[in-house]
Predict the structure of NADP-dependent oxidoreductase.
Amino acid sequence: STRIVLASRPVGRPEQENFRTETVELEAPKPGEALLQTLYLSLDPYMRGRMSDAPSYAPPVEIGQTMCGATVSRVLESDDPALRPGDVVLGYGGWQTHSVERAATLRKLDPALAPLTTALGVLGMPGITAYSGLMTIGRPEPGETVVVAAATGPVGATVGQIARIKGARAVGIAGGPEKVALLRDHFGFDAAIDHRAPDFAEQLAAATPDGIDVYFENVGGAVFDAVLPRLNQYARIPVCGLVANYNDTDLPPGPDRLPLLMSNILRKSLTVRGFIVSEFMSQAAEYIPAAAQWIAEGKLSYLEDVVEGLDHAVEAFQGLLTGKNRGKLVVEVSAI
Ligand code: NDP
C-alpha cells in the first residue's frame, strides 16, 4: 500500500517537501474492521489547518502520520457482518491507496443512485456545510440578496443555488473570467464577479443595488473588505471558512480595522456566527434527499475536478489553496 504522510509542518504555502510518500505492508482487518481499496480521495481546504499545530477545532495530523481525508473505497476484505467484499463505502481513509477502517464508521454507497464522487462533494460534507450554514444561520428570505465567494467550489456553488431555490437573489464571487462564466452559465447565479478585477469593490456594489442580506463567508481577505460596506441592517454572516488566510504566517500590516468591523456589527445589528459542519451533521438526513431531488430536477448543478493518481495529490492540494481547481477537487486513486 502506498501512502502520503506529513513530513514537516509548512510555514506559509505547503511545499512538496512537507509530504513524504511511503510504501507499507497491508494489515489484515481485525474483528469489526474492513480492508479497503481507495477509489477517490477528497481534497479540502481544511487539510491546511490539520498540517499546522496552531490551536484549532480538530487535532493536527502528527508528523509521520498519513494525511487525513474523506475517501470513497471498495471493500477488499471484511471482518464485520455489515460489509462484504465489493461493497463501496464512504469513509475517512486519508491519502493512501488502502486503509483498514472500523466498519461502524463507514457508510455504504449505492453506485446506482448517484456518481460515487458526489458523496465527497455536493451530496457529502461540502453540500451539508452549504445547506446547514445557509439555512440555519443565513436564513435567506425570498427577494433578499445572498453573496458568496469561492462560488464555483462545492460549498459556494451549493450555497448560491440553494439561495435561488429559496427565492433569494444569488451573487457569486470567483477568481478569473473563466470561473465567472461558470457562475453565470453553469450554476445560474444572478450576478457573478471576479475578485481579482481591479474594480472588484465597484463591481460588487453595482451587483448588489439593494445591499447584502446574507454574506456566506468562505474566504475573508479583500472580499470581506468589499462586502462590509454593502451589508444591510440585520444582515447575517455564516462564517464558514477563511481560505484567503490559511497560508498566512502573521497578521497583515496596516491600520487596526477591528473598530470598523465592530462598529458595523453594532450599527447594523449584524449576526456573525461561525460554525463547523460537524455541529450540523444531523441535517444530512434532510439535505441529502432534497439535494438528490434538486439535482434530478435540474435545479442544482455541480462541478468536479478529478485528478488522476495519488502522486498528483500534493500538487492538486497546493492548487486548491490558490484557486487552480475547477469545482470539487477529488483524486482518483484507483480506477473503478
Ligand atoms: P473550494 O473548492 O471552493 O476551494 C477553495 C477556493 O477558495 C479556491 O478554488 C479559490 O477560488 C478560493 N480562494 C482561494 N484563495 C482566495 C482568496 N485569496 N480570495 C478569494 N478566494 C480565494 O473549496 P470548498 O468549497 O471545499 O470550501 C470553501 C470554504 O468552505 C473554505 O474556506 C473551506 O475551508 C470552508 N469549509 C468549511 C467547513 C466548515 O465546517 N466550517 C466545511 C467545508 C468547507 P477562486 O479561484 O474562485 O478564488
Remarks:
- The radius of gyration is 20 Å.
